[in-house]
Amino acid sequence: MARKEGLTSSVIKNGWKAASLVPWNPSKGLESSQLKKTALDALSLFTTPTHEVHIIEAHTALRKAKSLTFETDIVLHKVGRSIGKLQASIAIKDAEIKGLKSRLEELQGQNKRRKIVADPNAMFCGINDIKQALEEQKAAEAARAEKKPEEEAKKAAALMEQAKIDDHVIVFQI
């Protein structure tokens, strides 16, 4: 009895209304957002790529949309490869700059003043300890003046400018 009452025309129509199939439209289910492929996001395609991965993502999105000609496909592939090479050269230059900065800091010295080491058995430092620390400081300044860190840094910078990029590029082959 309940089965017969459940299959009345009004119950079936109300079910169709709840599923938003009234008026009857067989293509409505096929036009669902779950079944449609998402359209290309125009904003994501026209942003400036900052890495090779972004070029590859845009390239695959355009390829899926089938809106690429053969020539455009090749150009995008080459652009992605050149961006990858430029990223590698930038990383190498950043490493060189970091190395030169650390070398410059090393040559300049960190602190001109020396801390006087106090004798733990004495309450205060003695005059002899202070004189010895001053002499050590003068000797260190004289040694630093002999090294001439400014000239060494200029020489290193000149050598880096004269060197070609190919001298610093590391090539990996698989």
Tell me what you see in this structure.
This protein is an all-alpha fold and about 170 residues long. The protein has helices at about 1-5, 10-20, 40-45, 50-65, 70-110, 125-145, 150-160. The chain is elongated and about 115 Å long. The mean pLDDT is about 75.
Task: Please name the defining characteristics of this protein.
mainly alpha; 174 residues; elongated; 61% helix
Average residue pLDDT: 77
Helix proportion range:
55-70%
Low-confidence stretches: none
From the N-terminal CA to the C-terminal CA, the straight-line distance is: 75 Å
Strand content: under 5%
Largest sheet: none
SS element count, helices: 7
Summing up helix and strand content along with how strands pair, one would put the structural category as: mainly alpha
**What is the number of strand segments?**
0
